[in-house]
Structure formats: structure tokens, C-alpha cells
Recover the amino acids of this structure.
């Protein structure tokens, strides 16, 4: 197939997924509201000690982002699997890997990006210093796409299973640890006044690696789930 | 001259052998009608013929090349309407058809005609979740009309259709077969269409 028809197909999948998600606005809002609520519970739980809160802030925000992404993963393929559109997608004359990447990009745009945009607000609640805000946003901007990418593998593997949600978190959460360590680490390190280049470089490396490999693995997992 | 053939295909679902030693050869303008009781493996066989599942033994070939070797080239000439309609409930009928067109290198200008032929023009701008089961089935079948494919594989295409729609679908099949294409279909009812030759396979297990 020519590259222009592949481009048309990729754009079509992306636009379709974004349109569908926007029409099911609760699907988009749930992870976001969850993120805000989890972040707001911490000051209530650990007490309003400003220094403690600002030390914890990077970790809390990152863990909340991780869990919020988890929550949204099932909608990545489950609906399409149930109504048969996923089957039709695998029967198109285009590499499934590329189409899967378009689906993941649409997922990130409506799950990861809103989390990134709302995170400064959550950080303020946790008495986080303004000067570190840029690094927090930058680390989330690099890290949340990795969460969507890695999560897609788990979502594809647990497709159509009973109790797939629990299995999905068991599969995916351990794989999220490097992102959490370098993401939250970047913010804490910056707060201590040290150089964060190493952390951000590693996050970027994770992003590059997962863009290259995870859509491919997800496509294979989808073909197995549909067999 | 295209040829679609299988040799000694065997399908197993779980531990249960459903189809074994199935061989057929289909040429242009021919229809293959697969019949069998519920649970005899018709859907499994069709999914295998599409390449969604691999046969446990035997080969499926398009013009003497295995379909798994052809890959995207095989999918480019194949249209499948399965058990599930493949219709997204939050998109309108027209949007669903446009998606199918763009994903299959079809022609956008054919969408309007396809909706009209399947009697869906009035519902084109409704989200498909409000349509009836039969209307969604018609939309799934309308997908066949928006791209030029050489082989249609249809799983119970008439399920849920009213008598008029069945007649329209039979007309569509006749046109398609006259153009020299091929159809593999499972159906519990007789299919009245002008195929150059109709082959019957009965599955029993």
C-alpha cells in the first residue's frame, strides 16, 4: 500500500478515537476527577504540615497520575473489541502496529495530556514551589505517553478476559516503576537544587524505546486476543 | 484469473476438532455456500479463511500463495462481515461508513450511494446505538459497497434482515458475482443469486 493511504488510515483512526471519546465524555472525565480526588486526599490524610506536603508532592502527583492512567486503560480496546470494530481494524490492509500507535496517541491526548495540564493545580494544593512547576510538567509530559504506551500492551493482553481489570494492574503497574522513579525523581532532585538532565534524558529514552517497541507488541497481543 | 482455494484445512477450537480435511477451489464469479448446524464451526472456518485465526493444518491460498504470506496484500482484496457488526455505537451511520472507507482505501463518494442502497439514508446522521439490530446489520453490509474487493466473506449476512433487505442483498450479491468476484457465505437460508456456479459445503461435527 502507498504511504499516502497509510497516512489517511492513521489519521482516520486517530480522529475516530478522539471523536468517540469526546462523545463519551464521562470516560474522559473519570480519570481526571480521580486524579484530582486522590491528590486532594493526601493533605487530609497526612495533615496540613506544609514542608511534609511539599516533600511528598512529586511522589503523590506521579502515583496519582499512574493510577488514573491505569483506570482509563480498559477503554483503549475493550469497546472496539465488543462491537467488532477491532476485528475490522485488523483486517485492513495496513500495518496494525501503525494503527495501534494512532489509537494510543488518541488515548494519551484525552487521558495523559489533561493530567499534565491539571497537575500544577494539584501541586499548588500540596504547597509545591512555583519554581519547580516547570520540571513537574516537563516530567509528566515525557512520562505520561510512556504510561499509555506500556499500558496498551496490558490492555491488549487482557482483552476479553473475566476480571481483566485486576490482572491488567498486576501486569502493568510493575512495568510503570521505572517511569515513576525517574519522573518523581526528576522533580525531587530539582527541588533539592541539583541537575535533572540525567532523569529527563532517561525518561525521554524510555519514551523513545516504548514508541518503537510497545505498539508492535500490542499489535501481536491483539491478534492473539482475536484468534 | 483469480483463484481462492484451500487444501485439507483443519480447524480446532479448544480441544474440539470442528473442521477437518476441507478442500475447495473457488474461481471468479463463484459462490461458496457453507451450511451446518449451530456450533458446527462455520464462524471458526470463516475467521480462518479471513486469516484472523490460523488453521491447525492445511493451507489457504489466493492465486497459489498462502494468505499468511500475502498478509496485507490479501487483506487489501478481502472484505469480511462477521458475527459482530463492527459498527461503533457513538458514531453516526455515515461516520461509521466513512471510517470503513478510509481504512480500506475505498472511495468516499461511494458512501452516499451505499447508504441509499441499504435504505439507511434517513438514519445516516443518527448515532448507530439508536438504530435497530437489523439496521445495524444493513450498515455492516453497506461497508461492502464502499471499497473494491475481490472476495467477500460473509457470516450470516441475512440474520435480522427484513424480506425487502434480503432481496436487496441478493441483488447486490448478483451484481458482485457478475463482475467476476467471489463470495464465501454461511447462511441457514437459500440464497437466490445469479452465481456462475454455487458450491455447497456441509459441516457436521
Amino acid at each position: 500500500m502507498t504511504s499516502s493511504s497509510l497516512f489517511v488510515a492513521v489519521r482516520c483512526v486517530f480522529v475516530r478515537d478522539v471523536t468517540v471519546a469526546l462523545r463519551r465524555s464521562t470516560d474522559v472525565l473519570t480519570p481526571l476527577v480521580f486524579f484530582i480526588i486522590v491528590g486532594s486526599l493526601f493533605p487530609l490524610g497526612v495533615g496540613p504540615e506544609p514542608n511534609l506536603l511539599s516533600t511528598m508532592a512529586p511522589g503523590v502527583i506521579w502515583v496519582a497520575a499512574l493510577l488514573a492512567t491505569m483506570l482509563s486503560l480498559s477503554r483503549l480496546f475493550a469497546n472496539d473489541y465488543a462491537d467488532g470494530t477491532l476485528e475490522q481494524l485488523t483486517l485492513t490492509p495496513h500495518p496494525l502496529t501503525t494503527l495501534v500507535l494512532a489509537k494510543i496517541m488518541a488515548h494519551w491526548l484525552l487521558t495523559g495530556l489533561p493530567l499534565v495540564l491539571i497537575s500544577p493545580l494539584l501541586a499548588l494544593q500540596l504547597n509545591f514551589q512555583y519554581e519547580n512547576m516547570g520540571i513537574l510538567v516537563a516530567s509528566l509530559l515525557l512520562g505520561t505517553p510512556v504510561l499509555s504506551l506500556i499500558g496498551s500492551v496490558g490492555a491488549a493482553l487482557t482483552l476479553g478476559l473475566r476480571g481483566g481489570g485486576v490482572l491488567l494492574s498486576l501486569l502493568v503497574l510493575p512495568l510503570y516503576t521505572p517511569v515513576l522513579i525517574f519522573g518523581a525523581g526528576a522533580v525531587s532532585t530539582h527541588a533539592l537544587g541539583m541537575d535533572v538532565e540525567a532523569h529527563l534524558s532517561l525518561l525521554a529514552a524510555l519514551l523513545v524505546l516504548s514508541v518503537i517497541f510497545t505498539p508492535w507488541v500490542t499489535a501481536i497481543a491483539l491478534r492473539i486476543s482475536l484468534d | 484469473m483469480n483463484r481462492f482455494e484451500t487444501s485439507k484445512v483443519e480447524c480446532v477450537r479448544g480441544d474440539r476438532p470442528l473442521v477437518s480435511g476441507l478442500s475447495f477451489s473457488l474461481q471468479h464469479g463463484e459462490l461458496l455456500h457453507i451450511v451446518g448446524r449451530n456450533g458446527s464451526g462455520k464462524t471458526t472456518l470463516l475467521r480462518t479463511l479471513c486469516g484472523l485465526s490460523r488453521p491447525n493444518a492445511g493451507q489457504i491460498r489466493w492465486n497459489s500463495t498462502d494468505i499468511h504470506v500475502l498478509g496485507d496484500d490479501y487483506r487489501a482484496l478481502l472484505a469480511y462481515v462477521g458475527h459482530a457488526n463492527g459498527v461503533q455505537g457513538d458514531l453516526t451511520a455515515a461516520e461509521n461508513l466513512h471510517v470503513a472507507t478510509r481504512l480500506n482505501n475505498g472511495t468516499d463518494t461511494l458512501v452516499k450511494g451505499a447508504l441509499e442502497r441499504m435504505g439507511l439514508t434517513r438514519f445516516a446522521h443518527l448515532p448507530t446505538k439508536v438504530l435497530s439490530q437489523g439496521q445495524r446489520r444493513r450498515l455492516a453490509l453497506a461497508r461492502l459497497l464502499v471499497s473494491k474487493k475481490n472476495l467477500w466473506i460473509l457470516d450470516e449476512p441475512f440474520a435480522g434482515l427484513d424480506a425487502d433487505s434480503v432481496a436487496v442483498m441478493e441483488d447486490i450479491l448478483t451484481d458482485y458475482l457478475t463482475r467476476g468476484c467471489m463470495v464465501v457465505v454461511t447462511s441457514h437460508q437459500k440464497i437466490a443469486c445469479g452465481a456462475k456456479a454455487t458450491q455447497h459445503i456441509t459441516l457436521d461435527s
